[in-house]
Structure formats: structure tokens, C-alpha cells
């Protein structure tokens, strides 16, 4: 859970996001993505925490709020759709050396549910942990 100051981002290209002029983000990594989506000419639409997906954890069902959903035009001008979760590498379930084991296992359950949900809709789902370029989200 993010316990830092509220991170408010005022959207510059409001035509890209539905009905919002600002978003309250939970981390500096999320802020970096929001700025990229807002300012990139390749990104045509984006939104923050609008998709909820049910997932099972320890025999209970919870709701998972995906950080970002977005649309972009590929090199051939085709519209593509993506979804992105932003997590520090220490919580990334793909990191075998993650420091926080229980949270990492819970994140894995979330990501598996999200991957299945988005794959069934033909949407690319990615996890970004701040390593590497943000441009990898539209590769």
C-alpha cells in the first residue's frame, strides 16, 4: 500500500482520457507512466484504475484494479489496446528474488487473473517495474 503523499497529476491532453482533468496516482512510477501516456503522440486514449478483475487469494475472492488501460497506433496505423500494472521490482511476481514473499505471491494471483481476462479480449497485459523504457509498453 502506498503511504506517501498524494500524487496528483493534472492531465494536459484531456481528449485522451474519459471525463477527468486530473488523476491521483499512488507512486512516482505511476506518475511516470501517466506523463508518458498523456504526452506521447502514439497513445490515443488512456485511463487509470477503471478496470476491476476478480481474483482468488487464500480461498477468498478480491477485486483487482488494473493501474492503466490504453490504446495506441502501431507502426502500420492499426489500433492496439493494452493494460499495464505498475509495481516496484521488489513486489514484481516475475522477480525470483523478491523481498516480500506473501505480497509477491498475492500479486502473482492478481496477474494471472488479469492475464487471462485481457488475453480473452485480445488486449496486451504488461507489468512495468520501472526498469527499462516506458516505450516497452507499446512494443
Please provide a written account of the structure.
The chain is an alpha+beta fold and 139 residues long. The protein has helices at residues 28-39, 101-120; strands at 7-10, 22-25, 43-48, 52-57, 60-65, 68-73, 79-86, 124-128. A hairpin with a 2-residue loop joins β4 (52-57) and β5. It contains two helices and eight strands. It has a domain at 42-138. The mean pLDDT is 85. A four-stranded mixed beta sheet has the order 3-6-7-8.
Keywords:
single chain, 139 residues, alpha+beta, 4-stranded mixed sheet, two-stranded antiparallel ribbon, 2 helices, 32% strand
Please write out the topology:
Layout: E1 7-10, E2 22-25, H1 28-39, E3 43-48, E4 52-57, E5 60-65, E6 68-73, E7 79-86, H2 101-120, E8 124-128
Parallel strand pairs: 7-8
Antiparallel strand pairs: 1-2, 3-6, 4-5, 6-7
